[in-house]
Amino acid sequence: MTLKSTTPIATSRRTFLKASTLAASALALRHSTLLAQSGPHTDASIEILPAETIGTISPEIYSHFIEHLGGVIYDGVWVGEGSKIPNQHGIRTAFIDAMRAVQAPVLRWPGGCFADSYDWRDGIGPRDKRAARAAFWGQQDSNEYGLHEFMRTCRAIGAKPYLAANLRTLPARDFYQEIEYCNAPAGNLPSNSAAKPAPDALAAQRAANGDPEPFNVDLWGVGNESWGCGGNLTPEEYAAMFRRFTAWTPSYGKDPLRFVAVGPNGDDTDWTRRLFHALYQNPERRHLWGLSIHYYTSGSPSQFAAGDALNFNSDDFYDLLTRGSIMERVVTDHWTAMGNTPGQPQVKLVVDEWGAWYGKGTELGPNYNLSQQSTMRDALLTGITLDIFQRHADKVAVANVAQSINCIHSLMLAQEDKFTLTPTFHVFQMYLPHRGAQAVRTEFTTPTIENPLANAPIPVGGNSYTGSLDAVKTLAGLSGSASISPTNPKLLTLTVVNPHLDRPITTDIAIRGASIASASATVLASNDVHDHNDFAHPNAVHPNPATTAQPTAGKLLHTFPPASVTTFQLTLF
Ligand code: AHR
Fold first, then answer.
1. Which residues sit with their C-beta closer than 6 Å to ligand 1?
2. What's the predicted TM-score (pTM) here?
3. Ligand 1 centroid – CA 126 distance (Å)
4. Which fold has domain 59-189+200-435?
5. pLDDT digit string (tens) for 470-488?
6. Is the N-terminal amide bond of 486 cis, ω within 30° of 0?
């Protein structure tokens, strides 16, 4: 593995060995037992425990997010019906195809911070009559892409819509009416209304605007980042608004709507505790389905102002992955802070913004605010993050990567007629077999890696980890998750990330109480962690079938290449 590094690799190896020695001593007994059993040299072991189930992995943890920001909507998703760029009713065909290829379950829109200054009425009706408006991110929004275009995008992809409602600049009445516009059957009024359907009822307006059938939106974000761009509110102030927006809101369907409350900034558990306390003071709390969490990873840069998507050394590399792994802590800490009572309907976690967020420098162009390149390093972070969600399948119900195209941790980059998939796209595709499967506990026994920048100042900015430095000291030397197929109890999926820059990790893989009959694997790896796809080289990084030995005595011996993501399909007997 080559590295454009200001830190010699030898230094990171020495650091690694020091860390390994310390961490390995704690694991020595168990590890040496496994080594003695397995015969050939191994660096690590993985044991899957099929009897120890965690929960069904919600397919919605592989969800997406698009915002009116930079080149996400205009150019990324929406090219317009008259465009020479291949499109379906104005939506970029390549975007639709890629989202279908990863079976995108849910698409969140219109923001982000944009949502709290957006009036949904600006984006309905004949397109040529819609007024342009100044919008949150400093761009003029033509409003060509609105509610109907978004719903058409969801239909083309096969995704469910997830709308973020404006809580900061529109009153609750507009929220009620947005729900009515989206969900009321044409010509009908809510069942609790005594009035006769009016010709200007919102469902009739929707039909006149081209969609007689209701959109049936069941997932609603009630505001966005209300502690910041969504209004600078305290948890108590937000709780009162949440109740006012969601109480007695008709769903127009047989099931209640899934309302998602604005959660914390990163690891701010104080917000969560106070919000739940304030919400639960009122017995009418049944409206709360999920708590939104936003957690972005910014490394603690050794040399670049806010970390750089392409220029990083080995220290930056390990630091970013270590800080990304904190997602596990963010999930468990907020779960505890929510204080879900056993036996009561559980409020789920909705991690509706996550990803690695770097400083300026790799934008596609001046109007592509927050677009950034995406390397193998980001692919590893994607694997680490999805594995965390899978290991916490009992807690995380929905997660939306930020953002699907042309922004932060993207799966796609597009500029006019140019388009490429990123390494992150490939990881999403490699993790497909986990959807709807039963997550099971899996033990990874391997020395940890010391974070060389553990003591560096914590990056300033929203949505990142600001807790104890102890949490950013070490990175798991190998991590992953396993699940049992929903249709075949003898079929397991195992995903594994090897974050070592320069060390292949030879690993014993075993199943407690069962034997591996056969194995096949796919791997995403590259010669250099800086490798990425761009418009000139859209296929520079792509997955390949992995060479894996067939099992012996029911176990598998496999060597994970440095800086790789691997998916196994294991059949048992
Ligand atoms: O994803 C970019 C921005 O990050 C979103 O608009 C906001 O919610 C978050 O701070």
1. 67, 111-113, 224-225, 294, 353, 402-403, 408, 462-463
2. 0.91
3. 29
4. TIM Barrel (3.20.20)
5. 778 999 999 999 999 999 9
6. no
